[in-house]
Design brief:
The protein has 232 residues and is of the alpha/beta class. The chain has a single domain, classed as Rossmann fold (3-Layer(aba) Sandwich), CATH 3.40.50.150. It is 25% helix and 28% strand. The chain has seven helices and nine strands. The strands form two sheets. A seven-stranded mixed beta sheet has the order 3-2-1-4-5-9-8, sandwiched between helices. The protein has a two-stranded antiparallel sheet with strand order 6-7. Helix 6 crosses helix 7. The longest helix is centred in the middle third of the chain and has 11 residues. The protein is globular. The protein starts with 15 loop residues before the first helix and ends with a strand. The structure holds S-adenosylmethionine.
Length: 232
C-alpha cells in the first residue's frame, strides 16, 4: 500500500543502525555520496570564530566534526525530523555550547535567524529535499553579505538517469516508521539549473564540480558539489 502522509517521520530509519554501533565524532569531513573521499571542509573557508549552520544535519556527524576539529563560535545542526534530532542529541549533546542541535525545518529556522550566519552547508540534506525557490532565498537572507553556502547533492538519479534539466522534483520511495511505503520530494538538478536558481536567490560566484563515485555498487552515485557566495 502506498500511503501519502504529512505527519509520519520519513527519516525515522536513516542512520539508525550506524548510531547503534558508532557514537564517535568522525575524524574527517566528506561531501561525497559514499562518504569516503573527495575534498573536505576546507571548501567552507576559515570557520574560526564564525557562525555556521548545517541544513538537514541528520545525526549531526558533520557538525560534530566541525565542533571538535575546528573553532567556529557556534555550529547549529538543523533538522526537521524529530527522529534525527533525537539521534543527534543522544550522540552529540555533550558538544554544546559550540554545537547547537536544533529541531526545525530549515526554511523557518533561516527566516527567524536574528544574527546572520557566516557559512551554511548541506550534505545531501535540506537542499536536496526542499523547494530551492523557498530554501535558497531564505539561506541568502540568513547569511552575512559575502557569506558562503556549500552543498553536496546527487549529480544524477540513483538509477543512473540524468539530473533534471528544469527546476522539477521527483518523488522518491521511502519507508514510514511502521515500514509502509511513502514518498518524498527530491530535487536532482543539472548544474545550470542550480546556477540559475542560486543566482535568482541572491548568490554569486557559483562554482560546481562533479566528484565521481569511487565505488561501483548498485547505489553508487556521483556527487555534485556546489559553492556559492551571498551577494555583498
Ligand atoms: C539524506 S539525510 C542527510 C543527513 C546528513 N546531512 C548526513 O549527511 O548524514 C537528509 C536529512 O535532511 C533533513 N531535511 C530534509 N529537508 C529538510 C528541511 N527542509 N529542513 C530541515 N531538515 C531537512 C532530513 O530530515 C534528513 O535528516
Amino acid at each position: 500500500m502506498v500511503r501519502m502522509t504529512t505527519t509520519a517521520d520519513l527519516w525515522h530509519h536513516y542512520g539508525r543502525t550506524r548510531a547503534e554501533r558508532d557514537r564517535g565524532v568522525p575524524d574527517a569531513f566528506h561531501w561525497t555520496w559514499s562518504q569516503d573521499g573527495g575534498p573536505g571542509c576546507e571548501v567552507l573557508g576559515d570557520l574560526t570564530g564564525g557562525a555556521v549552520g548545517d541544513l538537514g544535519a541528520g545525526a549531526a556527524r558533520h557538525a560534530a566534526h566541525l565542533a571538535i576539529h575546528h573553532e567556529p563560535a557556534e555550529i547549529v545542526a538543523v533538522d526537521a525530523s524529530p527522529a534525527q534530532y533525537e539521534m543527534a542529541t543522544d550522540l552529540y549533546a555533550h558538544l554544546a555550547p559550540r554545537l547547537r542541535i536544533t529541531s526545525s525545518d530549515a526554511v523557518p529556522h533561516l527566516q527567524a535567524t536574528k544574527s546572520p550566519y557566516d557559512v551554511l552547508y548541506s550534505v545531501f540534506g535540506a537542499v536536496d529535499f526542499t523547494d530551492p525557490r523557498a530554501l535558497l532565498p531564505a539561506a541568502a537572507a540568513a547569511l552575512k553579505p559575502g557569506g558562503r553556502l556549500v552543498f553536496s547533492t546527487l549529480a544524477h538519479y540513483l538509477n543512473g538517469a540524468p539530473a533534471q534539466p528544469d527546476l522539477l522534483a521527483a518523488d522518491i520511495s521511502v519507508k514510514t516508521p511502521e515500514g509502509e511505503t511513502a514518498s518524498l520530494r527530491r530535487w536532482v538538478l543539472q548544474e545550470h539549473v542550480w546556477v540559475k536558481v542560486l543566482d535568482e536567490a541572491g548568490f554569486t560566484n557559483v562554482a560546481a564540480e562533479v566528484l565521481p563515485s569511487e565505488s561501483d555498487g548498485p547505489r553508487a552515485a556521483d556527487t555534485l558539489l556546489v559553492i556559492a557566495d551571498r551577494q555583498r
